[in-house]
Amino acid sequence: MHLIAPAIILSVRAHGEHGAVVRALTPDDGVQPGYVRGGHSRKLRPILQPANVVRGEWRAPTDAQLAGLTVELIASRAPLYSEPLAAAALDWATALTAATLPEGQGYPRIHAGLDGLLGAIEAAPAARGWAVALVRYELLLLAELGFGLALDECVVTGARDDLRFVSPKSGGAVSAGAAHGYAAKLLRLPGFLVAGGVAEWGDILDGVALTGHFLARDLLIGRMAEALAARERLVERLKRAA
User: Fold this and answer.
1) How confident is the model at residue 222 (pLDDT cuts 50, 70, 90)?
2) From residue 200, how far is each of 164, 173, 237 by CA, in Å?
3) Strand order across the 187-188 sheet
4) pTM of the predicted model, to two decimals?
5) Helices 108-123 and 128-144 meet at what angle, rounded to 10?
6) Which of 166, 155, 143 is nearest to 219 (CA)?
7) How confident is the model at residue 228 (pLDDT cuts 50, 70, 90)?
8) 209 neighbors 187 (Cβ within 8 angstroms)
9) Other Cβ atoms within 10 Å of 184 Cβ, number
10) Mean pLDDT of all residues in the chain?
């Protein structure tokens, strides 16, 4: 096994006294794990930061063995970890991706989506500028892994107008008329997921609640407590920002 590719660092776990097992997302070959010799050294720790982009080279005698990995830094997002809200977003986005994607399967749309989200967190002057991208990335992840939501028409009537809610069971949109008398049991569908454009904090928090329900139910059910804890930290900080 020999692979050279740019990759986004997703997770780093200590292995032995000095080494680290790193999982990184490549554009075409999906999540690739590798052992980095000296991964906890002063030299490599700043490079092996989740959300950083590296040029990775994986080598292993057979596909069944954990590859040795060497890395060269392409782009560092380490300065963002000094900002509590941005740091929480980076932690959650990388932890979610690491927890849900199988190894060795290509997901180019997810790679592009994650790269775009991390770039938005880095470039936006305030959280409201990247929080919409976060909700859209979570929806993309659900769709690519087979749990996409049907938000283009009402699941009850087939209407495409006045879509205001989402069924927590089916994941289908529900119009305001069809939701009459049942709205309290439904999830709110923020306008930016239907019409696009910018969003106010109320809509952003509705979007976060919407995707959070389906992530917990369909992708992180009964496991990945660490990933869910990262999301709880992020949601709490978003609420404070709002």
Assistant:
1) low
2) 16, 20, 16
3) 150-154, 172-175, 163-166, 187-188
4) 0.93
5) 170
6) 143
7) confident
8) yes
9) 6
10) 92
